[in-house]
Amino acid sequence: TDLALIRNFSIIAHIDHGKSTLADRLIQRTGGLTDREMTAQVLDNMDIEKERGITIKAQTVRLDYKASDGQTYELNLMDTPGHVDFAYEVSRSLAACEGALLVVDAAQGVEAQTLANVYQSIEHDHEIVPVINKIDLPAAEPEKVRAEIEDVIGLDASDAVMTSAKSGIGIDEVLEAIVRRIPPPKGDRAAPLEAMLVDSWYDPYLGVVILVRVVNGVLRKGAQIKFMIGGTEHLVDRVGCMRPKIEQLDELAAGEIGFITAQIKDITETRVGDTITTVKNGAAQPLPGFKEVQPVVFCGLFPVDAADFEKLRESISKLRLNDASFSFEMETSAALGFGFRCGFLGLLHLEIIQERLTREYDLDLITTAPSVVYEMHMRDGTVRHLHNPADMPDPNHIETIEEPWIEAVIYVPDEYLGSILKLCQDRRGIQKNLTYVGGRAQATYELPLNEVVFDFYDRLKSISRGYASFDYHQIGTREGDLVKMSILVNNEPVDALSMIVHRSAAEARGRHMCERLKDLIPRHLFKIPIQAAIGGKVIARETIAAMRKDVTAKCYGGDITRKKKLLEKQKEGKKRMREYGSVQIPQEAFIAALRMG
Ligand code: GDP
Ligand code: MG
User: Fold this and answer.
1) C-alpha of residue 20 to centroid of ligand 2, in Å
2) Can you tell me the distance from the alpha carbon of 385 to that of 402, in angstroms, rounded to the nearest whole number?
3) Taking the model in full, what pTM does it have?
C-alpha cells in the first residue's frame, strides 16, 4: 500500500469514556463486521476485560475506509491497555502509531488517566484529535469539556469532533478527521527490515502470535527472522492483519501494522519492544525504547484445599503461556502449605491473574499480603532483593534497606482534596506540586510503593466517592526505616502473616491485625495470646479468653443424624485447621486476616 494512504492511530481515553464503543462503531461503519457479527465490544474479548471495562492486551484492527476525497485508506486502529500497571505496553503501542483519538466523556470531562495517556501520546509526537463523546447524555457539557481540554491539556480543541458512539452520531466525522489530520507513516521499503514487537499472545492453534509495526523494510511470509534483543531466530509462517477476523497476507511493508506467527511456543522469547529483523542483510541496531519489564508486586498464592496444588501449578503454567510479565516459583508456608510466590506488574495485574485462576480454572485461593521488592544492603557489601517478608535476613547483618518509590499524579474535585492530601500524608507522601484547574485539583506526590500496594487505590476511590483518579510511575529506590513485623499466635510466628512495614506504621498495623485475629480465631480451653512483634519486641497484643466450659457438651444427646452431620463437618474443618502450639486456627481466619489488606 502507498504510504500516503495509511493511517496508524490509537484511541486514548479514561476508563468508561467510550473507547471500546467508538472502536466498535468505526469497525462497523467501515464494514469490518456485519451488523449480525457486531456483538458488543469486539476489541475487549476477555470476560474480565469486559466486566472491568479495561483493555488488558493491546488489540489491533485494520479498516478500509473510502474517504470523501474518493481514495480508499488503510486505517490501523491500535487499542491500548487501559491501566497504569501496563504503562510500558501502552508506550510501545503508542510508538507504533502517528496519531491518537483523545476520547473525553462530555459529562465527566478530563480525568487523570486521560492526562497520563495524552502526555505519553504527545511525547511520541502524535497528532491528537480530540473527540468529545456521549453528547447524547442529558448531563453532557461539550463546550465546558472543550474548554477543559484546552486549559488542562493545552491542546487546540476548536475542531474537536462531537460524537455519541452509542447512538452512532459523528462517526463519519471521526473517520474524516483521522484521514485529514493524522499524518501518514514514514518508512523506507527498500531498507533492511526493522519491525517493532508491539505485543504477543498465545493462541492454541497458531502458537505465539506477534503484533508488529514495520518501521523499515518488508516482513515477508517465509522469511528467516531474528529477535535482536531476545536473540532467537525463526521462520515466519504466517503474515496477516485483523479485520478483526484474521486475513492472511504475503507481506507487511514499512509503515504497516499486522501480525506474524513463526511456530513459537514460548512467549518469553517475544519481548515487547524488541526489534525483528531478517537474519540475512538485517538491521545493524535495534530500534530505541526497549525496556525489560519486571514484576514489582509479589504475593503468595495458595490453594485453600491442599489437594488442589497440582491443579494450581498447571493453571498458573497455562496462564503464564499468555503473559510473560508475571513470574512464579514454588513456596511453602507453615500456615498455608504448598503454593507459589508470584510477581506482577501491579495490583490490578495481580487481581486479574487471581480472578482468572478462580474463574477459568475453578480454584479456591488464598493470597498473602502483597509486597514490593526491597533492596537489602548487607553488611558484607552484597545486595539482596527480598520478594517475601518470610525470607528477611537477620537484621544484624543488614546495613540499610531501600524501598521502591513512585511519583503519583492524583486528579480530584476540590471538595475532596483535603482528605486526599491527608491520605497521602499518612502514607508517607511528599508533595511535589499542587495546581487547580476548573474546580479540580491536580496533586503530585512522591510515595513509597509499599504504602500504595495495600489499599491506597480503594481508599482514594472511597474518600472521593469514585471521583479521584490516579496514575503513577516508578522513580527508583530510597532508604527507609523498614522492619519485619511478625504475628505470633500462642507465641509462635505465623509466616504467612509477616510483613515488611515502615517503623512508624508498625504499631498501628500490628494492633489492627491482632484485633482482627482475635475476632477470627475461635476460643480454646486456655488463653491464647496474639502478638505483633518486631524482632523480640512485642508492639501490640491481644488475648483470646479461655472458654468457660466445654461447649461441645451441648452436642451430646442430640438425635443421631444431627450428630453424624456435626462429626462430618468437624472432619472437614480439621483438614483446614493449622496448629499453632496446640492452637487450632481455621484457615478462614488466615484468609480473612489477609483480606483486610
Ligand atoms: P471504555 O472503557 O473507554 O472502553 O468505554 P466503553 O466503550 O466500554 O463505554 C463505557 C460505557 O459508556 C458503556 O456502558 C457504553 O455503553 C457507554 N457509552 C459509550 N459511548 C457512549 C455514548 O456516546 N453515549 C452514552 N450515553 N453512553 C456511551
Ligand atoms: Mg474498553
Assistant:
1) 4
2) 10
3) 0.79
